[in-house]
């Protein structure tokens, strides 16, 4: 349970820092257009901070953290989120600097795929615990 709290706390801090980073990076470089850095703040706060607070509550209610595969789910979801967030940050900074990496959307797609699998996996775990109640 503490791991879920600390993970939520980590993503809250990272999300707030991402908001400040977006503002300062674009201001410092004189960038005024759209960039992948702008939704980074929201993605971190919703898919990281708030998501893990919800999982913490579900864990308390249904004992999700006691399930055998919960640890593997935790790693998969965080891997998908970190790949997705990492590619957003890299792409955003490249956009601010005026360049891009053509293969970056494929890496972001992989992160989204892993993240989606993690969400489905969590729902399966939750479904198994609800059936027991």
UniProtKB/TrEMBL annotation:
Keywords for the protein's UniProt record, in alphabetical order: Membrane, Transmembrane, Transmembrane helix
One Pfam assignment: DUF2871
Domain of life where this protein originates: Bacteria
UniProt keyword Membrane present: yes
Transmembrane annotation, as ranges: 5-22, 42-62, 74-94, 106-126
UniProt-recorded name of the protein: DUF2871 domain-containing protein
Gene source species: Paenibacillus oralis
């Amino acid at each position: 349970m503490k791991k879920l709290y600390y993970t939520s706390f980590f993503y809250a801090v990272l999300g707030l820092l991402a908001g400040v980073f977006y503002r300062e990076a674009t201001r410092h470089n004189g960038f005024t257009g759209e960039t992948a850095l702008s939704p980074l703040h929201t993605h971190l706060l919703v898919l990281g901070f708030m998501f893990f607070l919800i999982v913490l509550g579900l864990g308390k209610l249904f004992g999700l953290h006691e399930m055998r595969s919960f640890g593997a789910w935790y790693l998969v979801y965080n891997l998908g989120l970190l790949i997705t967030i990492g590619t957003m940050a890299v792409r955003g900074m490249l956009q601010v600097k005026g360049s891009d990496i053509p293969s970056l959307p494929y890496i972001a797609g992989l992160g989204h795929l892993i993240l989606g699998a993690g969400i489905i996996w969590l729902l399966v775990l939750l479904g198994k615990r609800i059936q027991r109640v």
